[in-house]
């Protein structure tokens, strides 16, 4: 039995119609005769969605009891026993109730897929694990339930359920998503137009990237080399000259005209040394293109037009932007130039833009070196001059007799020309062929391969010697120039590598991608092992089909130290490239070591934080706990003294001092124990549905009367919290607010409902806290301002935030309008008094 297929309906926000679309698809499949059942679907009391359940078989849910409440989850075993062709499973990111078969619903779905059952599911873009921080920055709500991106990416089909923000807000206003009492709060908070637009953009971009992955995978599998203009990708060819910045800005403007345009700037380090790039200018252009949202690429290529076109076709580019040539008019005798060559060979599927700039036709600044390495065209030209040239010259001299000396000089000029063009072999052939023609046609006896005059023999010998010497010098110069150019190209790559180190680029995958791109490989992997007999493990890899088992399986393997190797697949590189590869491998090893050192540093930082906490605890015990103990001891000693006859009023006062000291001591010890529990992760909240007006008033017992104004509406929804933890958190917040409030000014404790959450606000009119200190006051043993040591150990707010987060809520500080500080405690609201405790996220009610 094969693995089942997964289809996911992806939405940008709650209410766009994911579940409705899933149920519509189920009805279509049932009409076609497909065995389709409902494993779990949540209709959220939406009438139109609930109607779609009719006519579909539903697998009974499994009831689970947890902490006094009954919850229902998908019965995975029942679905497996039923073994339908297709199962509908809503809310892929949902967290199952403790006691379920799996922790997450996506793990339930994996079991169904492994059993050969096709699954249709739904998920919102904000529940993708990689987007948690982005979504929190946009909406201010941290998504507690997430699904790994890889689970969604492995889906066989992803369909985006899209709706404009205006249409979604109209649906909300009409009561099609939430109940009427929650509509106003939702529209003014989570469902603001800006939030919805940003979430929609996230969803569209994520799906576009997924489609791009499919396209690249298909092109790779089917070896498609032609360009498919499915998306505007603009490649900017850089030479390192000052015109590069103009080209980048022009390319960005072109990309902005199309949907999803992408700009890739590429600098090709030419191994024959024909270009002179300024490292400083390249660094500026790299920064510019990255600031404008593009990417910078560094490629080595022997032929610039070919390398540029290969790169453009490899990334499926649609346009190439090049600058007008900086060469002088006379320099075009050496060839048409890169721009003209690229435009001629680009084909009909790749547009080439030649952009004018101020540096056009002003020269390159350095003379063009034409002898760096002999290309194929020059070698062919050398052979033509060396072989055909003497024949043509002989035919010419047979009609015009100039004398033996002049004839010999002309043949020698052809030999020198053959050496300059084609190197050693064409020059040797020219010298040999020319000497034969001189002997046959112009040296007595004519038309015979003999020489009668010894002087003519010496002349021909000198002619051959000069030709061979000139050819040897030219060939040696070409090889030396090629070596210098090769070293220069290597130095450019190594300087770029050193620059990445100085810039702090520590991503191993990015470095391996740079290796793959620079050397034109299909995949690169960094392998390591602990000893010579242990198996190899992959520390990082990029590209499809990376060799992760053994370095010997790769086309190229470069040892890095004793137990590490860089493995590359795609082609065999020349031995001269291995030196640069070794440098990349060494840098990869450094990056890997740095990453591991950072992980160890994080562990050490955690240990240091624990030591700091213990040190602070000792300081608290040595001073803050000693003060109430000393007061209690002094009062008890006074009462037990036989030397003084205490009046009833004095005894009552001493007993009151003992009680106050004991209460203060109890409060300090509770905070210390609570912080210890939070630091060790042993806080296990008992989540239940409660009303705020049952808990908040109980938290005010430790403050003076008339010091707090309480505003808790009776219409608030219930919240899912631990009553004890909530009481302690609110008590600490109120105590802190009363401490800093002016005398006679009460602290306000109010609550309100916003979408799927309830906010408790503790408002004081004290001195307030500046923005830069708002987060620091929640750290353990922190007290803001000039507060005496006896005012506490600075744990109240830290404990309150720890308890809030343990219950799935948040605690933040805001400025009070008009002066003061407001503590905002956000809690999860329950959907309705009659529903099980399934809540927590805007689009659905979950546990």
Automatic annotation (TrEMBL):
Chief subcellular location: membrane
Positions of the Histidine kinase domain: 620-831
Keywords: ATP-binding, Kinase, Membrane, Nucleotide-binding, Phosphoprotein, Transferase, Transmembrane, Transmembrane helix, Two-component regulatory system
Record field: transmembrane: 380-397, 409-437, 457-478
Plastid is among the record's keywords: no
Reaction catalysis annotation: ATP + protein L-histidine = ADP + protein N-phospho-L-histidine
Annotated compartments: Cell membrane; Membrane
Enzyme Commission number(s) of this protein: 2.7.13.3
Membrane topology of the entry: Multi-pass membrane protein
A GO CC annotation given for this chain: cytoplasm
Source organism superkingdom: Bacteria
GO molecular function terms noted in the UniProt entry: ATP binding; phosphorelay sensor kinase activity
Record protein name field: histidine kinase
Native source organism of the sequence: Streptomyces colonosanans
UniProt lineage: Bacteria, Bacillati, Actinomycetota, Actinomycetes, Kitasatosporales
């Amino acid at each position: 039995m094969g693995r089942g297929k997964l289809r996911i309906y992806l939405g940008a926000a709650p209410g766009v119609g994911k579940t409705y679309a899933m149920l519509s698809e189920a009805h279509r499949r049932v009409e076609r005769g497909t065995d389709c059942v409902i494993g779990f679907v949540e209709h959220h009391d939406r009438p139109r969605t609930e109607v779609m359940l009719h006519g579909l078989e539903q697998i009974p849910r499994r009831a689970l009891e947890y902490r006094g409440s009954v919850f229902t989850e998908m019965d995975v075993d029942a679905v497996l026993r039923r073994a339908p062709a297709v199962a509908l499973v809503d809310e892929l990111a949902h967290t199952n109730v403790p006691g379920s078969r799996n922790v997450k619903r996506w793990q339930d779905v994996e079991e169904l897929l492994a059993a050969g059952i096709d699954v249709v599911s739904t998920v919102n873009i904000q529940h993708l694990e990689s987007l948690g921080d982005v979504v929190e920055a946009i909406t201010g709500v941290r998504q507690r339930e997430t699904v790994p991106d890889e689970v969604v990416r492995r889906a066989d089909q992803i369909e985006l359920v899209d709706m404009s923000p205006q249409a979604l807000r109209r649906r909300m206003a009409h009561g099609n998503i939430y109940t009427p009492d929650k509509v106003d709060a939702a529209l003014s908070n989570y469902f603001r137009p800006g939030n919805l637009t940003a979430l929609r953009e996230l969803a569209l971009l994520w799906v576009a990237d997924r489609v791009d992955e499919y396209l690249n995978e298909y092109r790779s599998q089917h070896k498609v080399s032609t360009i498919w203009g499915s998306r505007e990708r603009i490649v900017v060819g850089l030479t390192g000259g000052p015109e590069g910045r103009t080209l980048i800005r022009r390319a960005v403007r072109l990309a902005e005209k199309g949907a999803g345009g992408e700009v890739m700037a590429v600098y090709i380090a030419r191994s024959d040394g024909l270009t002179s790039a300024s490292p400083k200018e390249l660094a500026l252009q790299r920064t510019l293109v990255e600031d404008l949202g593009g990417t910078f690429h560094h490629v080595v290529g022997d032929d610039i037009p070919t390398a540029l076109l290969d790169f453009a076709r490899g990334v499926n580019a649609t346009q190439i932007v090049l600058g007008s040539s900086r060469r002088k008019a006379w320099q075009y005798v050496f060839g048409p130039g890169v721009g003209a060559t690229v435009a001629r060979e680009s084909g009909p599927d790749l547009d080439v833009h030649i952009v004018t700039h101020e540096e056009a036709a002003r020269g390159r600044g350095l003379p063009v070196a034409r002898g760096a390495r002999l290309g194929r065209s020059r070698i062919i030209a050398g052979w033509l001059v060396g072989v055909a040239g003497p024949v043509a010259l002989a035919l010419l001299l047979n009609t015009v007799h100039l004398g033996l000396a002049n004839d010999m000089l002309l043949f020698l000029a052809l030999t020198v020309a053959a050496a300059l063009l084609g190197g050693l072999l064409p020059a040797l052939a020219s010298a040999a062929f020319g000497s034969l023609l001189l002997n046959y046609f112009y040296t007595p006896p004519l038309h015979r391969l003999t020489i009668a005059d010894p002087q003519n023999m010496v002349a021909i010998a000198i002619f051959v010697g000069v030709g061979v010497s000139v050819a040897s010098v030219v060939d040696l110069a070409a090889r030396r120039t090629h070596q210098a150019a090769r070293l220069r190209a290597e130095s450019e790559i190594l300087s770029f590598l050193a620059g990445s180190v100085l810039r702090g680029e520590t991503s191993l995958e990015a470095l391996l991608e740079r290796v793959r791109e620079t050397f034109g490989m299909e995949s690169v992997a960094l392998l390591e092992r602990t000893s010579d007999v242990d198996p190899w493990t992959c520390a990082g890899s990029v590209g499809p089909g990376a060799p992760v088992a053994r370095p010997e399986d790769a086309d190229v393997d470069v040892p890095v130290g004793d137990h590490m190797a860089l493995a590359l697949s795609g082609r065999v590189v020349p031995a001269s490239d291995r030196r640069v590869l070794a440098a990349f491998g060494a840098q990869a090893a450094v990056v890997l070591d740095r990453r591991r050192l950072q992980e160890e540093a994080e562990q050490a930082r955690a240990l240091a934080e624990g030591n700091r906490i213990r040190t602070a605890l000792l300081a608290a015990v040595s001073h803050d706990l000693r003060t109430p103990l000393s007061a209690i001891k002094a009062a008890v000693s006074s009462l037990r003294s036989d030397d003084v006859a205490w009046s009833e009023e004095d005894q009552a006062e001493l007993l009151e001092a003992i009680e106050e000291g004991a209460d203060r001591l109890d409060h300090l010890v509770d905070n210390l124990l609570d912080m210890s529990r939070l630091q060790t992760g042993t806080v296990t909240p008992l989540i239940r549905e409660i009303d705020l007006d049952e808990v908040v008033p109980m938290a005010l017992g430790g403050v003076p009367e008339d010091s707090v104004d309480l505003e808790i509406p009776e219409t608030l929804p219930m919240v899912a919290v631990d009553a004890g933890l909530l009481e302690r958190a609110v008590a600490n917040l109120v105590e802190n607010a009363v401490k800093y409030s002016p005398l006679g000014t009460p602290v306000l404790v109010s609550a309100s409902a916003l979408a799927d959450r309830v906010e408790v606000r503790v408002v004081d009119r004290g001195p307030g806290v500046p923005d830069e200190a708002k987060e620091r006051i929640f750290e353990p043993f922190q007290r803001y301002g000039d507060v005496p040591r006896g005012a506490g150990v600075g744990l109240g707010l830290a404990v309150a935030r720890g308890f809030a987060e343990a219950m799935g809520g948040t605690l933040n500080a805001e400025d009070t309008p008009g002066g003061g500080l407001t503590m905002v405690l956000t809690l999860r609201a329950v959907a309705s008094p009659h529903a099980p405790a399934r809540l927590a996220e805007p689009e659905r009610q979950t546990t």
